[in-house]
Design brief:
The protein has seven helices and seven strands, in the order H-E-H-E-H-H-E-E-E-H-E-H-E-H. Strand 4 and strand 5 form a beta hairpin. It comes from Sphingobium fluviale.
Length: about 190
């Protein structure tokens, strides 16, 4: 539970979910892991295109070091304790009515899948932390990224840990963040002059 307040009534889990960096380094149960990814599979997408792909490494497996090494050092310092690292990749080409064409919604749709994953994880007592602080070329190499696909982001997934394990700088930031007011993001008809 957080003490964040919404300006209008929303689902409580929207306020309770946040992105901690303190992970307990225990392994994740396979069934639990796949439940989180199953939620992402059911995200909405334009034309039901489902452009998302999830490439993962579990703590200690053959791919773990390459995935961790693709993160910037700042993110490596805390993500090293996650149970899983997941790269979200999008298919930038869609096929509609037998014709292949560029997708204009691949990143947008991957964002919906990420949100579904984050909320499912939260509902199961897990934590997630999305990040774009990574070496995108190293990440693409680590997953053998095919042509026509785009590396979108990385996600650390696991169990809540003790904030005492974090550096002083990170420990100070280990609190749910606020959001700007809705009126700062919502405009009727056009942007204000």
């Amino acid at each position: 539970m957080t003490d964040r307040k919404a300006g209008h009534p929303i689902l409580p889990m929207m306020l309770d979910r946040w992105s901690p960096r303190a992970f307990d380094p225990r392994p994740i149960d396979e069934e639990v892991f796949f439940s989180v990814l199953e939620a992402a599979r059911w995200a909405p997408s334009s034309f039901n295109y489902q452009p998302w792909r999830f490439v993962y490494a579990l703590r200690g497996d053959a791919h773990w070091e390459a995935f961790l090494g693709a993160l910037i050092p700042f993110n490596q310092s805390w993500a090293c304790n996650a149970s899983a690292l997941i790269f979200i990749v999008s298919d930038t080409i869609m096929e509609a009515y037998g014709e292949k064409k560029p997708s204009h919604s691949h990143s947008f749709d991957c964002g919906a899948a990420w949100m579904a994953m984050a909320l499912q994880a939260h509902s199961m007592g897990l934590i997630t932390h999305g990040m774009t602080g990574l070496d995108f070329e190293a990440a693409a190499k680590a997953v053998n990224l095919p042509e026509g696909f785009r590396m979108e982001a990385a996600i650390a997934l696991g169990y809540p840990g003790d904030a005492a394990q974090l550096s002083d700088e990170l420990r100070e930031r280990e609190v749910p963040s606020g959001r700007r007011l809705l009126t700062d993001s919502l405009f009727a008809g056009e942007f204000p002059s």
